[in-house]
Amino acid sequence: MGHSVAIWDHKAATEWTKDWNGIDQVVLRNPQGASARAIFKPPKAIRGGIPICFPQFGNCGSLEQHGFARNKVWTIDENSPPLHQNDSHGKSFVDLLLKPSEEDLKFWPHSEVRIEGLETLDYLDNLFKRERFTEQGDAITFESEVDRVYLGSPNVIAVLDHERKRTYVIRKEGLPDAVVWNPWEKKSRAMLDFGDDEYKQMLCVDGSAIEKPITLKPGEEWTGRLELTVVPSSFCSEGLDHLPS
């Protein structure tokens, strides 16, 4: 003899109310009666739930702690797509939307420059006590302070400047590592010989020998060489191997 299972109506279990500040809030309830909500009192951060750290984490960028998204008032998507049928039984959910204002967009970090040739490499992060990490991105872009030593880097590295449609090609010999540095806003203001906004127009990419110091025995020689050339970005459309020699 078969039996029927009641279908959980997530919308019926979602209550739209006002908090004590008069701000819209959503209360979610599960089949057992438990509910969840957060207290929101701008500019205080919301505790609990899934934190939205965007477009930066912590204070590693030029914005407030963890970025602006978590302290904004989000709107509710009335026509949100349902959860997958196999994943929806007994669950409550709500879809929220964030539409940034023109003021937000003024401070939204964006990068017109990227570095290619250092993908998948290990690096020492000077912002985290020289802790060792592995580069995960397809290319290195800049949205906050960067101070890294990439270990065992290739002898050809490309810095692509999209806005000016040109590429800086760095060729090095005898220098196994590469330093990538941009002080960003806060440290730029602290340097007397560095303009407050000059971090937007500069990037340091240096050949170096940091992980393993170069030691010479009597009579031995060592040569380090670094060459910087500028080519139109069209030369790089097929990758580093196709750059002109």
Automatic annotation (TrEMBL):
One of its GO terms (molecular function) is glucose-6-phosphate 1-epimerase activity. This is Galactose mutarotase-like superfamily protein. The lineage of its organism: Eukaryota, Viridiplantae, Streptophyta, Embryophyta, Tracheophyta. It holds the Pfam family Aldose_epim. Signal peptide: none annotated. Transmembrane segments: none annotated. One of its GO terms (cellular component) is cytoplasm. GO terms for biological process: carbohydrate metabolic process. InterPro entries: Aldose_1/G6P_1-epimerase, Gal_mutarotase_sf_dom, GH-type_carb-bd.
